[in-house]
Write a structure and sequence with these properties.
With 652 residues, the protein is an alpha+beta fold. The protein contains 26 helices and five strands. It has helices at 25-38, 42-56, 61-75, 79-93, 98-112, 118-137, 141-159, 162-178, 182-198, 203-219, 226-237, 245-259, 263-279, 283-300, 303-314, 317-320, 323-339, 343-358, 362-410, 414-490, 493-516, 519-524, 526-537, 557-576, 607-612, 616-627, and strands at residues 543-549, 582-590, 593-600, 631-637, 641-649. Strands 1-2-3-5-4 form a five-stranded mixed beta sheet, covered by helices on one side. α20 packs across α26 (616-627). The chain is flat. The chain starts with 24 loop residues before the first helix and ends with a strand.
C-alpha cells in the first residue's frame, strides 16, 4: 500500500506581534480590543487594528474586514501605514481572488522598500512568504523556495526576529518534505527550531516545530522517533483545548499510527481531528485528515467505506487542485478497486495515475531548489570573501604607511625604529592571517560545492528509484491486473506465462530500485545495510566476508549514505575490475573516527599509474572521503591483490 504523503502547504507566516495568539484566540482578541481602546494615538490604533484583522481573517471574515477598515481610517495620511495596508488587504482577498492578493502582496513590498524600520522589514518578509505560498498553490514550488531563501529570510534577518526567520526555514522544510526529500526537510526544520531557540521562543513556536518534526520522522521511515515529538507537543497544547494546533496534532498522531500499522488507533485520532477541523471551519485540513482516514480504512479491509471516502475527496476542489493529491487518490482508487475484485475499474484508475505521473516530474523541482540553495550559500560565501579581500587591501595600505613611518622615524631615534619594527611585524602577521583566512574560506566553499554535488547525486538516485518503483512499477502492476482478469475469463496458459514474466520483471525492477536507494539503510541503519550489500554481491565466483565493530546507530543519515556509497563503489571495483575470489570488508568506529578496510585477492594494479589517470569509481570514492574530511591509503601489487584503508571523520 502506498505510504501516506502530506500536502499541507504552508500559507502562514507570523511575526513578533502575534506569536501566541492561536493558543488562546478569544483572550488574545479581547486584549487587542482593549489595547485599541486605550491606545494614545491614531497611528497606534491603526497598527493594532491591522494586526487584529490578520488574526481574524481565517476565523471571522466580517470582523476582519471591519478592523481592516478601522485601521485604514486611523492610518490617515501616514506614508508608512498607507504602505502597510495592502498587505492586510491581501489577506482577505487570498481565498476569493488569489491573483488580486498576489498583486497586493507585491505592492506592499514595493511601497515599504524605502522604509528601513523593523516593522516595514517584517511586513515585507511576511508578504513575500504569503505571495510565495500562493504561487505554491499553483504548483510552482521552486519559486516558493527561491523567494524564501533569497528575499524573505534576508529581510527577516535585518529585523532580528528569530521567530520569523525560523518560520521561513520551517516553510522550506515543508516543501522538501512534500516532495519526498525527508532528510533535507529535517535539516531545514531543525535549523528553524534552532534559530527560534536563539530568541525569545514561545510555546506556540515549539508546538509547531514538534508537530512538523513528528510528521517528517514518520514519513522518513524513522517512525519510532515520532512519539517523543508528539508527547512534547501534547503537553504544551494541554492547557489550550480550543487551539487551532490540535488539528495539526491529530494529523501527525494519526500518521504515526498509520505508519505503525495501528489502523484503529489512527481512525480514533482522525475522528478527533476532523471534529476540530469542522469546528474551526478548516476545509482543506479536514480533507487532509480524510485522506489519511481512507488509508486506514483500506488497510483495515473496509474497502467499501474507504472507497466512499476517496470518491468524496475526488469531488472536493480544494483537494484535487494539487497534483500530488490527485496522484494519491488515483493510486488509492486503483488499489481499492483491485482489492474489491473489479479489475476494470482498477486498471482505469491505474492508467489515470500513470498519465498524470508522467507529466509531473519531481526531479525538476529537486534540481531547481538544490540549485537555488547552492546559489544562496555561494552568495553568502562570496560576501565573506569580499570582506576578507577588503581587509587584505586595508592591511596592505597599513603596511605601506608603517614602512614609511619606520624609515622616517629610524633616522631620528633608535627607540622609534624599534617601535616601527614592531608595527611592521604586526602588519606581516596580520597579512599572513588574512591570507590564511581567505584560503580557508575558499576551501570551505569547495567543500560546500562538493557536498552539494554529492547531495544532488543522492537525490537523483532517490528520484530514479522512486520513479522506477512508483511509475514503471505501477504500470507493470496495472498490466498484471488487466491480464489476470483476461486469463481468468479465457483460461489461457500463454497468458499465465506472460503474467509470470511480468512478475519477474516487477521483482527485477524493485531490486534495481532498492540498489539505487536501499530501504534497509533508512530503516535499520548502516551496519545492517552493509551486511545486506555484502550478501547481495556475494556469488559462487566471489565470497565477501563482512566484519563490523562498534558502528553507532545514531550517525546522521547523510553520513551513513556517504559511507555506504564508498563501500559499494570499492566492492564493485573488487568484483568487476580485480576479479577477486575472496574479499574482506571491515568497518570499525571509535568515537568520531570511522575506519574502513577492504582487502581482495584479485589481479591488483599499478597504484602510481592509476593515481595519474584515475577512473570514475576511484574518483567517486576520493570525493566522498574528502567530503567526510578523511584519508585513504591504497596498497596493491599486480597478481597479488589490493588493500584499501580509509579513515573518516564522523559525528559521534
Amino acid at each position: 500500500m502506498m505510504r501516506i504523503f502530506f500536502c499541507c502547504f504552508v500559507i502562514w507566516a507570523g511575526g513578533t506581534t502575534a506569536r501566541a495568539q492561536q493558543l488562546n484566540s478569544r483572550q488574545w482578541q479581547d486584549s487587542m480590543r482593549e489595547a485599541i481602546a486605550f491606545a494614545g494615538t491614531d497611528s497606534a490604533r491603526a497598527v493594532l487594528a491591522f494586526q487584529l484583522s490578520e488574526h481574524l481573517f481565517l476565523r471571522d471574515t466580517l470582523q476582519a474586514a471591519h478592523y481592516l477598515g478601522q485601521g485604514l481610517k486611523w492610518a490617515g495620511r501616514s506614508p508608512l501605514l498607507q504602505a502597510i495596508y495592502p498587505y492586510y488587504a491581501a489577506l482577505l482577498r487570498a481565498r476569493t481572488d488569489p491573483s488580486a492578493a498576489e498583486a497586493l502582496y507585491l505592492r506592499a513590498d514595493s511601497l515599504l522598500a524605502p522604509f528601513p524600520d523593523s516593522l516595514a522589514l517584517s511586513i515585507r518578509s511576511k508578504a513575500i512568504h504569503r505571495y510565495a505560498a500562493l504561487r505554491l498553490l499553483t504548483e510552482d514550488p521552486s519559486q516558493f523556495a527561491g523567494l524564501l531563501l533569497n528575499k524573505a529570510i534576508p529581510l527577516a534577518r535585518r529585523t532580528g526576529d528569530s521567530g520569523l526567520i525560523g518560520k521561513h526555514y520551517l516553510g522550506i522544510g515543508y516543501v522538501f518534505r512534500n516532495h519526498g526529500q525527508y532528510d533535507v526537510a529535517d535539516g531545514y526544520m531543525r535549523t528553524g527550531a534552532r534559530i527560534m531557540r536563539d530568541g525569545p521562543e514561545t510555546a506556540e513556536q515549539r508546538i509547531v516545530t514538534y508537530i512538523a518534526l513528528a510528521e517528517n520522522l514518520s514519513l522518513a521511515g524513522r517512525n519510532n522517533e515520532a512519539p517523543d515529538m508528539l508527547t512534547h507537543a501534547r503537553e504544551l497544547l494541554a492547557p489550550w483545548p480550543e487551539s487551532d494546533h490540535w488539528v495539526d496534532y491529530y494529523a501527525a498522531e494519526s500518521l504515526y499510527f498509520n505508519e505503525a500499522k495501528k489502523w484503529k488507533q489512527a481512525l480514533e485520532s482522525l475522528e478527533k481531528g476532523i471534529v476540530y477541523a469542522d469546528t474551526l471551519h478548516k476545509i482543506y485540513e479536514k480533507q487532509r485528515l480524510q485522506l489519511q482516514q481512507y488509508y486506514a480504512l483500506h488497510n483495515l479491509g473496509s474497502y467499501r467505506e474507504a472507497l466512499r471516502v476517496a470518491e468524496h475527496l475526488m469531488r472536493q476542489p480544494e483537494m484535487t487542485a494539487i497534483v500530488t493529491n490527485r496522484l494519491l487518490l488515483y493510486a488509492g482508487l486503483a488499489e481499492t478497486w483491485a482489492a474489491l475484485g473489479n479489475t476494470g475499474a482498477a486498471y482505469t484508475w491505474q492508467k489515470q495515475y500513470s498519465t498524470v505521473s508522467d507529466s509531473f516530474h519531481a526531479s525538476r523541482l529537486t534540481q531547481e531548489i538544490g540549485a537555488m540553495e547552492i546559489r544562496y550559500r555561494n552568495a553568502e560565501q562570496k560576501e565573506k570573501i569580499a570582506i576578507l579581500e577588503a581587509e587584505k587591501k586595508q592591511a596592505q595600505l597599513a603596511g605601506e604607511n608603517t614602512r614609511l613611518s619606520f624609515w622616517l622615524l629610524a633616522a631620528g631615534s633608535a627607540l622609534v625604529a624599534v617601535i616601527a619594527g614592531v608595527f611592521f611585524v604586526h602588519y606581516r602577521n596580520s597579512r599572513k592571517l588574512a591570507l590564511q583566512k581567505l584560503q580557508e574560506m575558499k576551501q570551505r566553499q569547495e567543500l560546500t560545492a562538493s557536498h552539494a554535488m554529492l547531495e544532488g547525486e543522492e537525490r537523483e538516485r532517490r528520484r530514479v528509484a522512486r520513479d522506477l518503483h512508483d511509475g514503471l512499477g505501477g504500470m507493470l502492476a496495472g498490466m498484471k491486473i488487466k491480464l489476470s482478469g483476461i486469463a481468468a475469463e479465457n483460461e489461457g496458459d500463454a497468458l499465465y506465462q506472460v503474467i509470470g514474466q511480468l512478475d519477474h520483471s516487477v521483482n527485477e525492477l524493485r531490486r534495481i530500485a532498492r540498489n539505487m536507494m536501499p530501504e534497509n539503510l533508512l530503516k535499520f541503519g548502516l551496519e545492517t545495510a552493509l551486511r545486506d550489500l555484502c550478501e547481495s554481491l556475494s556469488s559462487p565466483a566471489t565470497h565477501i566476508r563482512f566484519q563490523a565493530y562498534g558502528i553507532a546507530a545514531d550517525l546522521p543519515v547523510q553520513t551513513q549514505v556517504t559511507i555506504y556509497r564508498i563501500v559499494q563503489e570499492a566492492l564493485a571495483n573488487a568484483i568487476r575490475h580485480a576479479g577477486a575470489k575472496e574479499v574482506l570488508l571491515q568497518c570499525t568506529q571509535d568515537g568520531q573516527l570511522f575506519f574502513i578496510t577492504i582487502e581482495d585477492d584479485g589481479k591488483g594494479f599499478d597504484v602510481p599509474a592509476k593515481e595519474k589517470a584515475p577512473g570514475t569509481g576511484l574518483t567517486n570514492i576520493r570525493n566522498r572521503v574528502h567530503f567526510l574530511k578523511g584519508k585513504m591509503d591504497i596498497h596493491s601489487v599486480e597478481n597479488e591483490g589490493t588493500s584499501i584503508n580509509i579513515e573518516l571523520q564522523v559525528e559521534a
